[in-house]
Amino acid sequence: MPGSEVARALALAAGGALVSTSANAAGEPPPARAGDLSPALAARLDGVLDGGPTPGGLPSTVVALEGEGIRLLREGAVPFGAVRAALRTEGR
């Protein structure tokens, strides 16, 4: 459930969950405003919904599920241990 009222309204208008990626290339800082998008990325977009400044905070935790195991790709807001516990793979 996104914290952004604009994102929640967009999901409701779309009729369900939305899947998206970061609005920055790997290793670049995330943009806080629509105007902060890199020109290279902005040139590849059909449009930008400007909902105002983002609240900031830690990025998402990203993991890879591989067979019976799990691998951390990027540490983020949810500690890796909590992800492992939620997936009942603690100790793997």
List keywords for this structure.
92 residues; 2 strands; globular
Write up what this structure looks like.
The protein is 23% helix and 12% strand. The protein is α+β, with helices and mostly antiparallel strands and 92 residues long. It has two domains: 56 residues, no CATH class; 35 residues, no CATH class. It has a two-stranded antiparallel ribbon with strand order 1-2. A hairpin with a 2-residue loop joins strand 1 and strand 2.
Mean pLDDT: 84
Count the DSSP helices. 3
In spatial order, strands of the major sheet run 1-2
Distance between the termini: 28 Å
Strand content: 5-15%
The protein's oligomeric status is single chain
Low-confidence stretches: none
Total strands: the figure is 2
Order of helices and strands: HHEEH
Shape: globular
Radius of gyration: 16 Å
Total tally of structural domains: 2
Brief sketch in words of this structure:
The protein has 92 residues and is of the alpha+beta class.
Outline the secondary-structure elements:
Elements: H1 5-14, H2 39-42, E1 62-66, E2 69-74, H3 80-86
Antiparallel strand pairs: 1-2
